[in-house]
Give the backbone structure.
Amino acid sequence: MMRCSGILTLLAALLAAGCVTINIYFPASAAEKAADTIIDEVWKLQGKPAAVEPKEKAP
Amino acid sequence: MKRLLLILCGWLVTAAALAQGNLEISTPAIGQFKASMGARHAQLLPWYQSGAVGLARDGTVALREPGAVPLAQRQAVNALVAGENADRAGLYREIARANGNPGWEPDIRATFAQRWADRAPAGWWVQSATGVWQQKK
């Protein structure tokens, strides 16, 4: 049981360190999501396909 | 013992959710930058399409081909570019600040630079990481 609680303490310490890490390091994927949301709004791309509409045929 | 493990598991899931979470982008200041940039976009659009203005690697826009702008309009286009870059700089700074890490500004800027370039439609000009201008295909 002693050994078990030692392992648990270590695990808790590692997890705490992990949480601190998350707060310090830049959240790259969240930033990409945020950038895409803002780009959609500024360029008004919501719901519109990226491709240009086909041109009408000349008579 | 089992309960302790359960608590630890819950902790791990929360940590993972935080790591996958969203950035705060709904502050009034960010809203103002978005609105201002959105309104300007219609005026910049023809210059993006003609290649006179391109998306630079540092997350700004640049008048890369002044010769493609008639002299009479050059001052107006320069003003559009300057206004856009001021808004973009403010936007990047504000996102970093709103998320409690002003030091993230360069990372936010780099992320945006990459996404502007990736999402630009075909025909627009974007600057590569090495500084070379390329037309999107």
In short: Chain A touches chain B at residues 4, 8, 11-12, 15, 18-19, 22, 26-39, 41-45, 50, 52 (CB under 8 Å). The mean pLDDT of chain A is 73. Chain A has one domain: 2-43.
